[in-house]
Design brief:
The complex is a heterotrimer of chains A (371), B (338) and C (369). By secondary structure, chain A is an alpha+beta fold. In chain A, 59% of the residues lie in helices and 14% in strands. The model of chain B has no long low-confidence stretch (mean pLDDT 90). Chain B is an alpha/beta fold. Chain B starts with a strand and ends with a helix. The chains are: A alpha+beta (371), B alpha/beta (338), C alpha/beta (369).
């Protein structure tokens, strides 16, 4: 009975169902999708998940390594807690020693009230997932810096989460813009052919021939200085889309050219179906899956692009933050040598890029269920 | 146009040009079709029969020539030059069935949608339920189970897909159907099913068929008249019996003698055809066939022969017609077994 | 093995293990070919004819597992079972291309586009005949002339894309024949060619067969070609041979319902036009998890319920040289076969009933506990 049912399912399965089935079998793609989902959800709730805001800093904690979390204090298991750090300067050789103050402990609390933020930009709230409150003896000033602190004493963990909002969404937004630009220009090129096609193809090639990062640098040099973060975000997205649409336009054009000559397209024309309807009903679904693959595989490039540009100081600037900005703050070799925890944002960039690549691979394998 | 004719093809040309090369796919083809007839168009690769079919249906734009069509209301017009408004009316009268059952159906649409599509395009005011009903009725007529219509094409076999293609062509009640190698991609026993179906539908809906095929046995079975094409030209046209048993063009003679007959006892002299089919981009001078013709004279290499009616209803393009004796199938020998 | 036979296929089975079950594209094929004769293997798609002939040469995919015997008489007059040879071993490679050759349906893809035609045909010569390059080239040119390729010196240096379909098929035949094989397997060699070219190639094959005294196993679905080329015919359906005999008998008097259906489906030129073509109802089933029954049962117009759906008919000789595998035939040999099968069914049913009773009793006992 089960066999019969699955056969009927197969018969009734649309292109998307067949694709989804094939994709599910690709383990790496499934895992990647999960990872990306976690990252995006974390970015969505970044304000809540991060214990500290963007502007918070503590001079005492400059460049400190990730905070140790203990659970046993003087022989007793009292649950997770942290210790406040102490700094002492050796008067003879001026070296700084960082230690922990064992006199009191600061328990890690969940759902604490901390730095206020605005949900969706206008609903005020100050709830954070976790944080550190008063010490066991009433002291203050302990911090829980899960990824350590940067050179100004700001929490890298919070900044990674808050930076994720930009680093994860700019590439995605630019991919969407490229998607629509690619469909539009690719369709025109593929459908009309002739001179239009030739011109568009040459433009695509010229754009592709220019080295990416210098091109982005040149474009961002054109951005007026001192503008707001939101405007910067907007400009960055556009700049990144500027190159990416070419890849998608090519995919669309290629598919257009090959699908135009399929017998079923000719049958539709002979039946009297209008040109617009043919494009919409027959050609677009034909290339949609390939385009989604192309889009997914283009996102890693944008991620690295945004990160690179912000690292070079051309993109997002303080006080806003993205993973690239965080890496910029770790840009001296001696700095990294002494404080390797400042490179943690790289792990996030790498994981995201890999996840998108594997997901794209899985999508590509599933893209043509009819082959 | 003559009284009984529903279609008159006159001087049809189709050229494909790419870079500096011009391929003459169809050169100066003319023939007439009466309503209810089946015309078989045969020929080997490069003869242009598929291109001819597509020009008639206006899937390709012809380079030159006219296709006169008599509409339901008796109006006579050139199908190829009808304007957009007129085409809206008469587009549905001439439809096509394709060869490849796998590429002629959009794999991303359900079968019901595929069959409904021509209705949507031609009857925009028809209600959804009426369209559904018409599609289901047509599917049942071609032998498909209407409950399976929500499936996608990949659920069906080659023969069933071909039936879907037939339903799609018929759902808007055409009068002429161009069958472009409609059964060539099917197994022998499935071919028989589909051929029987086409014949039944022809009777029921009073259809006229232009049946393009390279399979001469199928063509002989189904056609009233046959046209033989070589390198883009129509070299002979006449009734099926004339073409098969009394051919008047050397190519037709060679073609008929090359067809293997499913009867081990039927022996006849094979007319050898030397050489290969010439390149359509660079056809021979004069009569296209002269390089391989065993009756060729010098005149043949210089002059293009005139396509003329040598007997009532029998047209040939050969300058030596009448001087040479040609042999075709010996029907008396073949019928003895029956 | 009989003295005149060059090859005898005995009870050939080929199984393919798949996720969904066991696919059995060949389920007991028996035929033999005499020296110098042409046997036509006729069947539609899905009947297993390609897998059968690939099994003879051991070139099936790894997942195909053949069983049975394929006895071949080598040029040294030895009789060996081809299936017992290692498919990658030296022995079978010695036979492939040299004593048994094969030509395929699409000559366009049978040649590599990277090398000249001459080079590729010569590869065969160098492998099997002589290692002397000069001599090998001469032999290759000679065989190219024999198959009717004009300007052989020029053609030798040309690439496959410069040849037409018919020429390529000739080149393929040249490559197959350079070693004067005793058996040529031709898998739909003319299906992709135009009618007039097909006629040329078939004539060429007949001439060469006479000259080389070579047997041909000709696989096709085209009944016209079979009538033209073959001395004997074997009709295949769903992995089994259902009828064999000489061509004249099979065409004049087909006995098996499938053969009759097939013959009726094809319009014979000159035949009556207003007649409907006979069409066999239904479609070929998938050769997976097939029950013990005649493969043609679902589509047969002469089926006997209770018999044909419970037993599988074997090939039985109804007249000298004419065998069919069918229960529903008036020939005494067939009748005897039918009765034997009915007996066997009765026995099996009785056995099954007895077993079922035993199990029921045993079950009751267990239930009680």
């Amino acid at each position: 009975m089960a066999k019969k049912k699955s056969k009927e399912d197969y018969y009734l399965a649309s292109q998307w169902t067949l694709m989804a089935r094939k994709l599910k079998k690709h383990k790496l793609a499934r895992v990647s999708f999960l990872i990306l989902a976690i990252l995006y959800i974390a970015a969505l709730f970044a304000d809540f998940l991060a214990p500290y805001g963007l502007e918070e800093f503590d001079g005492l904690y400059k460049n400190t390594a990730p905070t140790n979390i203990y659970s046993v204090y003087e022989g007793e298991n009292i649950g997770p807690y942290v210790l406040k750090i102490t700094k002492s300067i050796n008067k003879t050789d001026f070296t700084v020693t960082i230690g922990e103050d064992l006199s009191e402990y600061y328990k890690i609390k969940f759902f604490v009230h901390g730095t206020p933020y605005k949900i969706l930009g206008f609903i005020p709230c100050d709830l954070h997932l976790f944080g550190v409150g008063e010490g066991s003896k009433g002291g203050t000033g302990a911090k829980i810096f899960l990824f350590g602190a940067d050179s100004l004493g700001r929490d890298i963990f919070s900044r990674v989460l808050l930076g994720a909002r930009i680093s994860l969404t700019i590439p995605f937004a630019s991919a969407i813009i490229s998607f629509f630009l690619g469909i539009l220009i690719g369709s025109i090129s593929g459908y009309f052919g002739g001179v239009t096609d030739i011109i568009i193809q040459r433009i695509i090639e010229v754009i592709g021939a220019v080295p990416q990062i210098p091109l982005w640098m040149a474009l961002s040099a054109a951005i007026p200085p001192g503008i707001s973060t939101i405007k910067m975000y907007f400009y960055m997205t556009l700049i990144l889309s500027f190159i990416n649409w070419t890849g998608m336009a090519r995919v669309v054009r290629g598919k257009f050219l090959s699908l135009k000559n399929e017998d079923y397209v000719m049958a539709a024309r002979i039946s009297g179906v209008s040109t617009w309807k043919i494009i919409w009903k027959h050609l677009v679904p034909g290339f949609m899956s390939y385009l989604i693959v192309s889009m997914t595989l283009g996102i890693p490039g944008s991620i690295v692009g945004e990160t690179s540009m912000s690292y070079l100081g051309l993109g997002i600037k303080s006080p806003a933050t993205s993973w690239g900005v965080l890496l910029q703050e770790a840009s001296s070799v001696t700095d990294i040598a002494s404080h390797p925890h400042k490179l943690i944002p790289i792990i996030f960039v790498t994981i995201t890029v890999l996840a998108y690549n594997f997901l794209g691979d899985g999508l590509r394998d599933a893209a043509d269920p009819y082959k | 146009m003559e009284k009984d004719n529903i279609l008159e093809v006159k001087g049809l040309h189709k050229r494909f040009t790419s870079k500096n090369v011009t391929v003459r796919a169809v050169t100066d083809v003319s023939f007439s079709v009466k309503e209810g007839e089946t015309i078989g168009i045969v020929g080997e690769s490069g003869c242009g029969k598929t291109t001819l079919g597509r020009c008639i249906v206006r899937a390709y734009g012809a380079s030159e020539g006219e296709v006169f069509y008599r509409t339901k209301d008796g109006e006579e017009l050139d199908f190829l030059k009808a304007d957009k408004k007129k085409m809206k009316d008469i587009r549905k009268d001439i439809q096509m069935i394709f060869q490849d059952p796998y590429s002629s159906l959009d794999p991303r649409m359900t079968v019901l949608d595929i069959i409904k599509e021509p209705l949507r395009a031609n009857y925009p005011n028809m209600s959804k339920s009426e369209m559904d009903q018409r599609a289901k009725d047509m599917a049942a007529k071609v032998g498909l189970n209407p409950t399976y219509l929500m499936r996608y094409p990949h659920a069906f076999s080659g023969g069933q897909r071909q039936r879907i293609g037939i339903a799609r062509a018929l759902v808007i009640n055409p009068r002429i159907i161009v069958c472009d190698e409609a059964v060539s991609a099917l197994d022998v026993s499935i071919q028989a099913q589909v051929i029987n179906l086409l014949k039944d539908l022809q009777k029921e809906f009073k259809l006229t068929y232009i049946f393009i095929s390279h399979d001469l046995s199928v063509v002989e079975h189904i056609s009233d008249k046959v046209g033989v094409m070589y390198l883009g030209r129509l070299v002979e046209y006449g009734s099926t019996e004339d073409i098969f048993a009394h051919p008047k063009h050397p190519y037709t003679e060679a073609l008929m003698s090359a067809v293997p007959v499913a009867d081990p006892t039927y022996r006849r002299e094979r007319i050898p055809l030397k050489g290969e089919i010439p390149n359509p981009a660079n056809p021979p001078s004069g009569c296209y066939f002269h390089t391989r013709c065993r009756y060729c004279t010098e005149k043949c290499s210089l002059e293009t022969p005139e396509y003329r009616e040598v007997e009532p209803g029998h047209f040939v393009a050969c300058s030596r017609c009448g001087e040479i004796e040609l042999t075709g199938f010996d029907y008396s020998l073949l019928n003895k077994a029956d | 093995m009989e003295k005149d036979n060059i090859i005898e296929v005995k009870d050939l089975h080929v199984d393919i293990k798949m996720l969904e079950g066991l696919l059995t594209p060949v389920r007991g094929v028996n035929f033999e070919i005499k020296k110098g004769e042409t046997l036509g293997l006729v069947g539609e798609s899905g009947c297993g004819k390609s897998i059968t002939c690939k099994a003879i040469l051991g070139i099936n995919e790894k997942k195909c597992v053949p069983h049975g015997e394929i006895m071949f008489r080598t040029t040294d007059d030895e009789e060996i079972d081809l299936l017992s040879l290692n498919p990658r071993g030296k022995e079978i490679r010695d036979i492939r291309g040299k004593q048994i050759s094969m030509i395929f349906q699409e000559p366009m893809v049978a040649f590599s586009p990277m090398y000249t035609i001459g080079n590729q045909i010569n590869e065969c010569t160098l492998l099997h005949i002589t290692k002397d390059k000069k001599k090998a080239k001469e032999i290759t040119l000679e065989v190219m002339r024999k198959v009717g390729i004009a300007n052989v010196e020029k053609r030798y240096k040309q690439y496959p894309h410069e040849f037409s379909g018919g020429m390529l098929q000739r080149a393929l035949i040249a490559m197959a024949l350079v070693c004067y094989p005793k058996l040529l397997i031709a898998d739909e060699p003319t299906t992709a060619l135009d009618v007039t070219i097909q006629a040329q190639i078939l004539e060429l094959m007949k001439e060469l067969q006479k000259e080389f005294n070579m047997a041909i196993l000709f696989i096709t679905h085209d009944l016209g070609v079979v009538a033209n080329m073959c001395d004997r015919v074997a009709v295949m359906y769903l992995g089994r041979i259902v009828e064999t005999g000489d061509a004249k008998t099979i065409y004049a008097n087909p006995q098996h319902p499938y053969t009759r259906g097939l013959m009726g489906s094809v319009h014979k030129i000159g035949g009556r036009k207003d007649e409907r073509l006979f069409s066999i109802e239904g479609t070929v089933p998938l050769a997976m998890n097939l029950p013990k029954a005649c493969g043609f049962y679902d589509r047969c117009d002469a089926r006997i319920e209770g018999l044909c759906d419970k037993a599988e008919p074997e090939l039985v000789e109804i007249e000298p040289g004419h065998k069919i595998a069918c229960f529903n035939c008036q020939n005494p040999a067939c009748i005897a076969h039918r009765e034997a099968a009915m007996e066997q069914i009765k026995e099996d049913e009785a056995k099954a009933a007895a077993e079922a009773e035993e199990n029921a009793k045993g079950g009751k006992k267990r239930g009680k506990r």
